[in-house]
């Protein structure tokens, strides 16, 4: 079958080369780093030690015993720069320092698990900030609350505040890490986190969320800290005033009735003489109080406390996680904020109030903070998402319609979001039109060249396969097709005959009448052969100067021999004339047929036919010699 050169058939091959190269690169063995390699250890130890020092010495308190810790920022940066192995080393060192400082071993579990979770989400294409937010919402806060419930007897309100405070701390640190990460060169990012580049809308959305997350958290924490600090200061001042008022009342009363008080307090402890003092104190104090002597024996107390006079006032100092400016004590299984003052007679006045007066304010502010942050994030996420889509929509449409001429007006109108976008869109539309025009022109050229190449290929085929004088197959073209036909006949046991024909005394014709007339004779005889060899299975060729060859296949051997005889008779009747020259020609024929035994090769068949032709020539010419097997 002839092959026609088509340039378009080669274009996919060239385009495919880039795909093959990319595939080879993508399947090349990735470099894997051992956790014990020097680079991983040094990187992890360096970031871990700096993170530990930051957690231990550079924390920023914002209320109570809760502070902002920045060591996890360095851990996350180590993770995105060198991968999980280095990140785990840095996380372990940094988390140990924080757990030791806060005397909370469970912080180690929470912070190390954060590194694992963020690593897995980064591998799945999540951004750093989004990965950390997902961790704290669905893993960090529930895990913190569970550990606190198991190990602590604090109130549920304090548990919730502790968990949410820790999550805000984590998100704040992740926001700072993500902000630094956004300015890191891509070559410094761990190769397994690079993956497919994110969409421009995702990048814009992430940057917008970063710009609102940090300021929102910082401003909210500042306002919350100021409000709580103000409330603590107010309560501390109130406790101080109450203590001083009670101390003034007690000193004045004792000074004016010292002897009487001593006598009756010793002789008649249950006489009720203290009632005037109790009445004065109850009218003066707004909070509960306890007055004890230098032996810590109760002299007076608020009725609500139900304390026995002259009993021991025993209490234990305690620690409130939300309040650090006012001390706390525990007695009768209750917690109180307190203020103590000592009178001139060495009596101790302890003014008490419930810590709920402060924790309720903290809880209210904290819940407002969490709600405001959540609402801000949701609203801004919607706005940022719509804005990012609006910014990137012209670019997306340009990419989708760059190869066609549709939607030009829509793309121009959508690009009017900014002057820069409009200029880029105009330039790209112009470039697209130039490209489309070039493609159309190139396509026409390719079609024209393809037609020319097809014609040229046909011409080259004719030159390579056919005889220029007779338009029959030449020796090479005949051998190619005849070999294929021969193999098929042998394989399927189809009868075939090889016929070799030679013009008798053709050299004498050339010498007598000249070569042009000889060519006319050859053309005339070839036309005679063509009249008889009309089947698609008949192959006819010019094998030499005055020698012709025919391969007959199909039917039976007798039909082949009969066709050969008709050709021989037809040539005898043919006259070739030119001007006043008239010539009759004869031909000698050698036939070799295969009808029952197919053991002969193609070359053997040709040789056998040639031997029969030589036999016809030797025995007088103008004869047919046949060999069959």
Automatic annotation (TrEMBL):
Q: Which UniProt keywords apply?
A: Membrane, Transmembrane, Transmembrane helix
Keyword set includes Oxidoreductase: no
MF annotations from Gene Ontology: diguanylate cyclase activity
Q: Where are the transmembrane segments?
A: 35-58, 70-100, 134-153, 159-181, 202-225, 366-384
The record's EC number reads: 2.7.7.65
Q: What class of enzyme is it?
A: transferase
Pfam families reported in the protein's UniProt record = GGDEF
Record field: catalytic activity: 2 GTP = 3',3'-c-di-GMP + 2 diphosphate
The protein, known as: diguanylate cyclase
């Amino acid at each position: 079958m002839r092959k026609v050169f088509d340039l378009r058939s080669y274009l996919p091959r060239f385009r495919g080369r880039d795909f093959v190269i990319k595939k080879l690169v993508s399947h090349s063995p990735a470099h894997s780093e051992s956790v014990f390699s020097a680079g991983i250890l040094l990187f992890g130890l360096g970031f871990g030690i700096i993170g530990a020092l930051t957690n231990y010495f550079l924390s920023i308190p914002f209320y109570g015993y809760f502070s902002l810790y920045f060591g996890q920022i360095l851990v996350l940066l180590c993770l995105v720069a060198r991968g999980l192995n280095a990140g785990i080393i840095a996380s372990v060192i940094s988390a140990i320092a924080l757990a030791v400082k806060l005397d909370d071993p469970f912080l180690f579990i929470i912070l190390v698990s954060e590194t694992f979770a963020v690593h897995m989400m980064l591998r799945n294409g999540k951004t750093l900030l989004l990965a950390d937010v997902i961790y704290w919402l669905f893993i960090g806060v529930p895990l913190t609350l569970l550990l606190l419930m198991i190990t602590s007897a604090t109130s549920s309100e304090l548990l919730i505040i502790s968990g949410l405070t820790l999550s805000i701390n984590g998100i704040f640190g992740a926001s700072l890490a993500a902000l630094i990460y956004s300015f890191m060169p891509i070559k410094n990012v761990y190769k397994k986190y690079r993956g497919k580049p994110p969409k421009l809308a995702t990048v814009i959305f992430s940057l917008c969320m970063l710009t609102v997350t940090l300021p929102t958290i910082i401003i909210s924490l500042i306002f919350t800290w100021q409000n709580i600090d103000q409330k603590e200061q107010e309560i501390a001042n109130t406790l101080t005033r109450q203590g001083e008022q009670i101390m003034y009342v007690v000193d004045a009363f004792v000074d004016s009735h010292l002897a009487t008080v001593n006598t009756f307090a010793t002789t008649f402890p249950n006489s009720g003489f203290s009632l005037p003092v109790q009445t004065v104190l109850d009218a003066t104090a707004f909070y509960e109080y306890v007055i004890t002597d230098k032996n810590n024996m109760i002299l007076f107390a608020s009725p609500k406390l139900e304390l026995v006079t002259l009993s021991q006032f025993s209490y234990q100092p305690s620690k409130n996680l939300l309040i650090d400016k006012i001390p706390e004590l525990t007695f009768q299984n209750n917690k109180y904020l307190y203020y103590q003052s000592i009178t001139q007679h060495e009596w101790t006045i302890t003014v008490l109030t419930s810590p709920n007066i402060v924790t309720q304010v903290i809880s209210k502010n904290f819940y407002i903070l969490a709600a405001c942050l959540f609402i801000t994030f949701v609203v801004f996420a919607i706005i940022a998402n719509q804005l990012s889509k609006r910014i990137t929509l012209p670019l997306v449409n340009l990419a989708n319609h760059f190869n066609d001429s549709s939607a030009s007006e829509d793309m121009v109108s959508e690009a009017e979001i900014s002057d820069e976008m409009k200029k880029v869109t105009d330039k790209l539309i112009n470039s697209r039109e130039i490209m489309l025009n070039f493609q159309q022109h190139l396509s026409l050229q390719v079609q024209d060249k393809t037609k020319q190449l097809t014609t040229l290929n046909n011409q080259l085929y004719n030159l390579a396969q056919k005889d220029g004088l007779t338009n029959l197959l030449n020796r090479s073209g005949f051998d190619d097709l005849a070999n294929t036909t021969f193999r098929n006949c042998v394989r399927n046991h189809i009868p075939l005959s090889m016929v070799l024909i030679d013009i008798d005394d053709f050299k004498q014709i050339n010498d007598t009448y000249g070569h042009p007339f000889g060519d006319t004779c050859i053309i005339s005889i070839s036309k005679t052969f063509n009249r008889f060899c009309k089947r698609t299975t008949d192959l006819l060729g010019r094998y030499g100067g005055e020698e012709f060859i025919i391969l007959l296949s199909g039917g039976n051997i007798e039909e082949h021999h009969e066709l050969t005889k008709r050709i021989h008779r037809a040539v005898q009747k043919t006259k070739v004339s030119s001007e006043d020259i008239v010539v009759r020609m004869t031909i000698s024929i050698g036939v070799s047929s295969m009808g029952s035994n197919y053991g002969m090769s193609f070359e053997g068949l040709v040789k056998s036919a040639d031997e029969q032709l030589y036999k016809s020539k030797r025995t007088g010419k103008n004869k047919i010699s046949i060999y069959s097997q």
